[in-house]
Write a structure and sequence with these properties.
6 strands; six-stranded mixed β-sheet; alpha/beta
Length: 177
């Protein structure tokens, strides 16, 4: 292989490696920013959701002592309407460290589990259901969102929430009803 071709290939390889490095840094900053946003729950204004399609079937029934998560938002909204409940949506991604931490800690807390029975709980993997996340304007993970049975947002919080902060979100959403 000629020396010039080798130099061009080496330069292109360097550019690709540099671009990948920038991507990793950017994704890390985004994840950090999302995990730093553990402020108090915030009120949403009016929001119109244009696409509530889901791509996975329900994992509706689970053992007692665990949160009963659904994965199909339209089904969850219909169930919430028929039962007169609010919907708690956990927007997450499998690669999201703070999301995994909430799964291991917050969602295993007995007080959180007990209080979640007043909601229809839904997990939305933003990589598998980007239209749902986009419809609600999700910009950071994890995002915890309480919506009414008609899909209108009531309360939300972005970033990791320990059990205490998650319970405050639940209280704020319940009080706004």
């Amino acid at each position: 292989m000629p020396a010039r071709t080798r130099r061009v290939l080496l330069a292109l390889t360097g550019v690709v490696i540099f671009a990948l490095g920038l991507t990793v840094v950017w994704l890390s900053a985004q994840s950090s920013r999302a995990s730093d946003q553990t402020a108090e729950p915030r009120q949403f204004g009016d929001l119109v959701v244009s696409d509530l399609s889901a791509s996975k079937s329900d994992a509706d029934e689970v053992e007692d002592g665990e949160i009963q998560w659904m994965t199909d938002l339209p089904q969850a909204l219909a169930k919430a309407k028929s039962e007169g409940k609010l919907v708690m949506i956990d927007f997450y991604a499998t690669w999201c460290g703070p999301c995994q931490l909430m799964e291991r800690t917050t969602f295993q807390d007995p007080k959180v589990i007990g209080r979640m029975h007043q909601f229809i709980a839904v997990k939305i993997d933003t990589d598998r259901q980007p239209a749902v996340a986009g419809g609600y304007g999700v910009t950071g993970l994890p995002t915890s969102l309480i919506v009414a049975a008609d899909g209108q947002p009531v309360q939300s919080a972005i970033g990791y929430l320990d059990a205490e902060k998650y319970l405050r979100l639940i209280d704020a959403g319940s009080n706004d009803r």
